[in-house]
Amino acid sequence: MNPYLEQPDYWSDFHNQLVAAIARRLVPQLLPKYRVVTDKWVYTVTDALTVAMGRPDVSIQQRQTNPTPIATTPKATGHPVKVRVPVPMEMQQSYLEVKDAATQIVVTVLEVLSPANKRGEGRSKYMAKRQQILGSQTHLVEIDLLRAGQPFLMEPDVAQSHYRILVSRAPQRPLADLYAFNVSDVIPAVPLPLGPEDEDVLLNVQSLLSELYEQLGYDYFIDYEQAPPMPWLAAELQPYLSKES
């Protein structure tokens, strides 16, 4: 996983491209018994989270990159100052459903997390959706390729890994399989559970990422001289960048 894709300039497009690529990879393996449906989850958050959804906010980016100001005594002024107030904003996030073609029952949901799923109001809304799935007979595959944000609670706590993929099979809950990995690791291939009479399909996320990275030409646009997105530090990414160069 390339950490620079976590930047707001790239994430929204990358997220949509990855979900679509997973669908294209799964369809020929699941026909004719299953349908792979790309759907959109629509929810509302305040505009403070738009930058986390991959919609850059120049004022927020500047605030993160400017040096910390020296504390001074506040001065009264008769002139107004432009401020930002929270306003409702509709968000759309694509995800996949694997449906039984005969009954249209959703067998498996596959989610690729976005930054807003892991913080603030967006996190609360995603958790409600997640709990609804975990309380049903539907399997869940949850792909988290974002270091930023708070990982979801599970035991034992493996939050120290940079990334993780959760495979939650309905009959085995509350137990689930967690694939934890770091930036320099090859992303593990994971099983996509289906109906009780069918074998899992193996999903190779690393292969898809490599194909997308080449097809979409990210190397032409990413400036590796710039500071990496938070919370990454340039020093800890040096081994990864040396390996990729």
Summarize the structure.
This is DUF4058 domain-containing protein. This protein has one domain.
Major β-sheet annotation: 6 strands, mixed
Radius of gyration computed on alpha carbons: 20 Å
Helix-strand makeup class: alpha+beta
Beta-strand content estimate: 15-25%
Runs in which pLDDT lies below 50 for 5 or more consecutive residues are 49-67
- The counted number of beta strands is 8
Widest sheet: strand order?
Answer: 1-2-3-4-5-6
* N/C terminus separation: 14 Å
Protein name: DUF4058 domain-containing protein
Pfam families: DUF4058
Overall description:
This protein is of the alpha+beta class and 245 residues long. It has one domain (3-57, 85-244). Helix content is 28%, strand content 23%. The chain contains 5 helices and 8 strands. It has helices at residues 8-30, 58-65, 120-134, 205-215, 234-244; strands at residues 34-46, 88-100, 106-112, 139-144, 163-168, 177-181, 190-192, 201-203. The strands form 2 sheets. It has a 6-stranded mixed β-sheet, sandwiched between helices. The chain has a two-stranded antiparallel sheet with strand order 7-8. A hairpin with an 8-residue loop joins β7 (190-192) and β8 (201-203). α1 crosses α4. Residues 49-67 have low confidence and may be disordered. InterPro entries: DUF4058. This is DUF4058 domain-containing protein. It holds the Pfam family DUF4058.
